[in-house]
Design goal:
The structure is a homodimer. By secondary structure, the first copy, chain A, is mostly helical. Chain A contains nine helices and no strands. Chain A binds a DNA duplex through α1, α2 and α3.
Chain lengths: ~180, ~180
DNA sequence: CGACTATACGGAGACTGTCTCCGCTTTTGC
DNA sequence: GCAAAAGCGGAGACAGTCTCCGTATAGTCG
């Protein structure tokens, strides 16, 4: 990749991070291009679709989410606490940009989405937590990690799309109660 | 209201029902106007926003959802079965048009939304089911109906936005396990 | 029935956002 | 330096939203 291309790529990405935070993931792509000081053509060459751009921004998240999962496991807390911690961290990350949570929830079951791979990484992180607790015998029989992932993404989506600053804890409590052993 | 206005209003509504079913709730409003045989101005006079149009279509649903709740209560089934039935029916209704579930989830906590009232009716229906089971002592202590509603809407949103035809049952099972008494 | 008025219609067009195409510029390798 | 390759950017086609206002029509009253 040519040096100027690399520069523009990075500039677009850092601008997108700002604009998506300000206006959510539905912000105008032309505006991002303008504020990054490049033409729309340049933006679309680097990121053919909005999803591709969101996907590129997600790289940071997936790393952090993965780390959070391992950190949660390392705490060695009881199942309830560990899950609550993990779920809350996960939601915090995927709602960083308004509208991102629903895109992630949709991409999770869509292998054609550019975000699919990243979703897999996050799903893996979740699986590690679930498997760990399963091994400790603290979960109900036949808890499906993928399913849990979908459910928690749903909670994130609701919280994200609500105009009020919704507390996710009560919803997560229900989910946690639904998967830990009695 | 003038007779021709009434005619157009109804025509727009029935056309919207078709187009929203075909293309989801993001379909072009001008297309709905065109297919209804009216000018865009006429559509926007009757329904100033997309939400207002979706809201008008929702009238049928709220009635049916309300009836479903009462029907579920009348079955007198055990808590798990009753809740599963009710949740599945509810989701079936609010995912009638692609994109509707997320709009409803968002409107649920937004008194400014034109759909807010309808959401209240559905939330009331849910509250009746929960309260009934609570009275029978089959639920965990302090189950919040509003919270349950949000959670189930989240499940609906995930199912609706997934490109695959996702089965909601496993997710609902977790929710049900999370609210019924051990 | 004909005239009058309030009501409603509809479509042109302003505006915004998406996305492409292609003539021009910059970088890179030699 | 020079040529080729790589990349730029902005004009503009296209689609959707929404408004404004000249025109048409339903309802009303003498």
């Amino acid at each position: 990749m040519r040096a100027d291309a690399r520069r523009n790529y990075d500039k677009i990405l850092s601008t997108a991070r700002i604009v998506f935070t300000e206006r959510g993931t539905d912000a105008s792509l032309d505006e991002i291009a303008r504020r990054a000081g490049v033409g729309p053509g340049t933006l679309y060459r680097h990121f053919p679709t909005r999803e591709a751009l969101v996907d590129a921004l997600m790289q940071d998240w997936t790393d952090r989410v993965s780390a959070d999962a391992d950190a949660a496991i390392a705490t060695d807390l009881p199942a309830r606490e560990m899950l609550s911690d993990w779920f809350e961290h996960f939601i915090e990350h995927i709602t960083l940009h308004r509208g991102a949570a629903s895109k992630i929830a949709a991409a999770m079951d869509d292998p054609a989405s550019p975000m699919y791979r990243k979703c897999q990484v996050m799903a893996d992180a979740n699986r590690r937590v679930i498997d760990h607790l399963e091994a400790r015998g603290e979960l109900r029989p036949s808890v499906d990690p993928v399913n849990v992932m979908r459910l928690v993404s749903g909670v994130a989506t609701v919280a994200d799309s609500s105009c009020t600053d919704l507390d996710v804890t009560p919803m997560l409590d229900v989910v946690v109660d639904g998967i830990v052993a009695d």
